[in-house]
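Comment thread on ticket #2218

A.B. wrote:
> Attaching the input chain for the structure job we discussed in standup.
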Amino acid sequence: MSYLRSFATAGGDAVIRIAAGAVHLVSATPRGTYRVAVSQTEPNRLVVQFYDTGRQFLIDTMWWQEKPWAQVSDIS
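C.D. wrote:
> Ran it. Output below, let me know if you need it in another format.
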């Protein structure tokens, strides 16, 4: 079973598929002057960062404790 989730931030939008043991980026679209960076240090965790001068948005996703987990942070 997998979960497809959309995340909307002021810096951009991301669609991420989360499943047991694997997290995949489907799309990441920055908004305006924001840029995007993607980090995946292990198969079950993915971080998408939309960043611009002085502000960034982090979308941290993973398969954790047998279920999907996500946190969106606004870092100014």
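A.B. wrote:
> Thanks. Noting for the ticket: Strands lie at 2-9, 12-19, 22-30, 35-42, 45-52, 55-64, 67-75.
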